[in-house]
Amino acid sequence: MHEMSLAMSVIDIVENAARAGNFRRVSTVWLEIGQLSAVEPEAMRFCFAAAARGTLADGAALQIIEINGRGLCFNCGETVPLAALYDPCPTCGGYPVQATGGTEMRVKELEVE
Ligand SMILES: [Zn+2]
Known about the structure:
The protein has helices at residues 3-21, 41-52; strands at residues 26-34, 61-67, 70-73, 79-81, 97-101, 105-112. By secondary structure, the protein is of the alpha+beta class. It has a single domain (3-112), classed as hypothetical protein PF0899 fold, CATH 3.30.2320.80. The strands form two sheets. The chain has a three-stranded mixed sheet with strand order 2-1-6, covered by helices on one side. Helix 2 (41-52) links the parallel strand 1 and strand 2 (61-67). The model has no long low-confidence stretch (mean pLDDT 95). The chain binds zinc ion.
């Protein structure tokens, strides 16, 4: 489950931000997860709670914002919704569609005390 190492990197980001901002506790973390990022939101939720134990984010709520995949079709030149990497273009059925959005996972915002 690669979500565990990802969850630990999220905690790293949160702890660095907390240190830089002199926060004592992080109460909510908003995490954007792209549809094409290969991160399972439910697995992330579970791993985040485990990885947060004993850190500033211990017990913090995790709010997951799912970002839809988007791609640029090289066949018709349209920007189209993309549900999975390597899917054909939903508009013209062509290939390849290069992912242009929804491929990342990032910490969007923190609520701190
Ligand atoms: Zn197309």
